[in-house]
Known about the structure:
globular, alpha+beta, six-stranded antiparallel β-sheet, 33% helix
Amino acid sequence: MKHAGADTLHRLAPLLQRLRAIPGLTERKPGIFYLRASAFLHFHEDPAGIFADVKLDGVAFERFALRGPEDGAALCERVAAVLSAGRSTAPPSAR
Length: 95
């Protein structure tokens, strides 16, 4: 599964705008977000669709299918909730 290309990122523009507004996330490259010094969220595409990989627990990437705007909104809500609760800032042993 390859990282999302420019055309896919263009289709994800509304979602990317919402993610850019979440405090704590830094977009180092288009569609690749970091939390502090760690990769936190990025996108993939393949024939099965578009997916987001995100480290909601601060350790391992979880994959989320993005089939429509509702999935993107749910992803943003989960990311914002995790970051506002401070649950994904670092692995427990590194805190």
